[in-house]
């Protein structure tokens, strides 16, 4: 926990030991090396900070975000795009958060290819990849769980947040001209999804947070009062991190009655475990989770429901909006995605045993998972099979000061991602919302959403379940 706090507070003693990390938060070593080379050999980049982006369009968006007043300028080379600005911690922070929120950083494999071309690396790292048309193979695998979709309905993106931003922009482009600018966030969602809704709605009042996912009456009242102005509803199924499942069919009916678009993110359990497409206008998912189970790439998906009232308009609006999935990332994902059902089967076979252990342990206060009471029935309406739970579990401890002792003693891999073959655990609120867990106002905001600042997020991997339980038991003793 000392290291977690040090990372969040940018303690040099901690940060300098962090050689790599989740790629929307930590620049990959290949990217850092490429930037260092370019700034060294380019006189115009001296005393400037360079950000390399996933596309020319993302570079333009970053430039507009920073504004020329900050001295920001486009940077281009053949096949390479970015933005530079005079050295400034404030401007650098603005750029980094913008690229984090939208998933706009250069792919590590693309950076590696540039390093090879510059003869700074001898060759790309050897790895198993799909030899044929990788995007076609990814879409073929996805159609097994998204039947009725065509290639035009399945938009691949560089990461889940790029997919979410593309979906938001597409719906906005159709709804705003009709005077529909209000967006409803149903439940507490992942931090960058919240950031997109807060930052890119037209006015602060157009962002509406509906705390209780099960409160259909509250949703009906909002629609009754503002239905003609509501552009869309965004929710996760289940939510992150309380793993609550709303009554999706009822919400879908409400949205269609009032002409709002429903965006559903099933990343916590995966599109391979949940059948949400019939109820959504757009399914937005991070393929980083479960499908890229080796934990070595990011990817995202926007799927158009071909039966949705605005399907044709959404297809058109989405075209070319997401940040592209780099070719080598696609080739690697196409090699991994076929393993998804088998990986999920192993994870989902182990998850109930871990839940049962935690629920019975006297040191554990509360356990949240897909089949928890209160939303179990809603989840099972969508689950492809009764045991298709995904691997996510969150829990809290009875001892108010017990987090530090437990986390420091725990011999499980620790990290902020999930849906890997490797079990991962993290003190989620500290990593995702450190500003909230360290201020009185933030703690009050968490309490209003029934979120314990010491909540732990555990995603079960494919290791033997008795090893996972043994490690938890040892740390809880």
UniProtKB/TrEMBL annotation:
Enzyme class: transferase
Cofactor: pyridoxal 5'-phosphate
EC number: 2.5.1.48
Pfam families: Cys_Met_Meta_PP (PF01053)
Entry's Gene Ontology molecular function annotations: cystathionine gamma-synthase activity; pyridoxal phosphate binding
Gene3D superfamilies with a match to the protein in the record: Aspartate Aminotransferase, domain 1, Type I PLP-dependent aspartate aminotransferase-like (Major domain)
Keywords annotated in UniProt: Pyridoxal phosphate, Transferase
InterPro entries the record matches: Cys/Met-Metab_PyrdxlP-dep_enz, PyrdxlP-dep_Trfase, PyrdxlP-dep_Trfase_major, PyrdxlP-dep_Trfase_small, Trans-sulfuration_enzymes
One Gene Ontology biological process: transsulfuration
Family membership noted in the UniProt record: Belongs to the trans-sulfuration enzymes family.
Listed name of the protein: Cystathionine gamma-synthase
Source organism of the structure: Lacunisphaera limnophila
Gene expressing this chain: metB
């Amino acid at each position: 926990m000392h290291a977690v706090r040090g990372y969040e507070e940018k303690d040099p003693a901690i940060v300098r030991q962090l050689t790599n990390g989740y790629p929307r938060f930590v620049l990959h070593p290949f990217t850092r090396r490429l930037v260092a080379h370019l700034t060294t050999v380019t006189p115009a980049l001296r005393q400037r900070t360079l950000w390399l982006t996933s596309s020319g369009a993302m570079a333009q968006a970053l430039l507009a975000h920073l504004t020329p007043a900050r001295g920001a300028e486009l940077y281009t080379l053949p096949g390479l795009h970015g933005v530079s600005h005079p050295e400034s911690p404030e401007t650098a922070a603005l750029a980094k958060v913008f690229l984090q929120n939208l998933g706009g950083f250069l792919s590590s494999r693309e950076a590696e290819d540039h390093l090879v071309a510059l003869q700074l690396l001898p060759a790309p790292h050897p790895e198993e990849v799909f030899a044929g048309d990788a995007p076609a193979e990814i879409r073929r695998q996805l159609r097994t769980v998204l039947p009725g979709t065509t290639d035009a309905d399945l938009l691949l993106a560089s990461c889940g947040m790029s997919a979410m931003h593309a979906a938001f922009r597409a719906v906005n482009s159709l709804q705003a001209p009709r005077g529909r600018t209000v967006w409803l966030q149903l439940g507490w969602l992942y931090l960058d999804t919240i950031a997109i809704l807060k930052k890119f709605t037209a006015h602060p009042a157009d962002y509406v947070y509906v705390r209780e996912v099960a409160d259909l009456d509250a949703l009906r009242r909002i629609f009754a009062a503002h239905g003609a102005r509501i552009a869309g509803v965004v929710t996760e199924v289940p939510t992150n991190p309380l793993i609550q499942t709303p009554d999706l069919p009822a919400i879908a009916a409400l949205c269609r009655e009032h002409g709002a678009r429903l965006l559903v993110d099933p990343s916590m359990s995966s599109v391979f475990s949940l059948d949400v497409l019939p109820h959504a206008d757009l399914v937005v998912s991070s393929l980083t989770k479960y499908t890229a189970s080796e934990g070595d790439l990011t990817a995202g998906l926007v799927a158009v429901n071909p039966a949705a009232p605005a399907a044709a308009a959404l297809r058109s609006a989405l075209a070319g909006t997401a940040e592209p999935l780099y070719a080598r990332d696609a080739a690697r994902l196409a090699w991994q995605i076929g393993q998804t059902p088998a990986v999920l089967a192993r994870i989902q076979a182990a998850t109930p045993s871990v839940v049962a252990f935690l629920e019975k342990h006297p040191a554990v206060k509360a356990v949240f998972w897909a089949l928890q009471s209160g939303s179990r029935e809603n989840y099972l309406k969508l689950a492809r099979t009764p045991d298709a739970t995904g691997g996510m579990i969150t829990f809290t401890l009875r001892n108010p000061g017990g987090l530090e002792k437990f986390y420091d003693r725990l011999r499980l891999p620790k990290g902020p991602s999930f849906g890997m073959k490797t079990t991962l655990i993290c003190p989620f609120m500290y990593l995702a919302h450190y500003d909230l867990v360290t201020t009185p106002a933030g703690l009050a905001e968490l309490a209003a959403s029934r979120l314990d600042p010491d909540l732990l997020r555990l995603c079960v991997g494919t290791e033997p379940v008795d090893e996972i339980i043994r490690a938890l038991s040892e740390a809880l003793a």
